Amino acid sequence: MKRILIFIIIFVLLLSFSFADNTTAVNLNFGKFFITESFESSFLYQYQPINGNGVGIKVKRFKKDGIRSTFYSVYSLRFFDLRGGGIWKQKKNDYPTQAYFKLNQINFTYSAILNILPSFVVTPYIGIGIGVGVAKFEGYRYYIDHWQDHNESYKYQALIPVIKLPMGISIRPNDNLEIEIEGGFENGFYFSWGTSFIF
Hints:
The chain has helices at about 1-20, 35-40, and strands at about 25-35, 50-60, 70-90, 95-115, 120-145, 150-175, 175-185, 190-199. Strand 3 (about 70-90) and strand 4 (about 95-115) form a beta hairpin. It is about 10% helix and about 65% strand. It has one domain: Porin (Beta Barrel), CATH 2.40.160. It has two helices and eight strands. The chain is mainly beta. It is elongated, with a radius of gyration of 20 Å. It has an eight-stranded antiparallel barrel with strand order 1-2-3-4-5-6-7-8.
């Protein structure tokens, strides 16, 4: 809990500092997080869907050209979870494992964004980012090995590095509002949508 509060305090300080720039936008966003089946199938014979929801706030700091800047910076604080459950097998002849897990993660990231068509109302963008996150994992599994039942539970919490690869489309009907549709990778694949208020 202390780490979460520290993250929020740092983010608020960055938010306050951002208003010293010429143009700043505050973005509220919601999305879906997931692990692709192609990724799971690369190391599991039998697997289950892994997905969850996320919510976040971002501060965008634009350069001297404002929202029409070719490059801009994004500070993001995001909360999301991933869940999965069912029967899993690593190899075809392995004993089946019945397992359930939940991963809650809080990420603070910095991203550099390239605005591909900055002077247009609709502009695609792409970026790269890094950061840190607090991950909390809870899991349970049941399996039979050599005719013996096994019940195991797990609970971990750790500070982890975060890699972010965002790409999306921004729609700017005027100089004070932006609608954003984004997909990418942030320690898990995601698809999100949000609204930015530009100052």
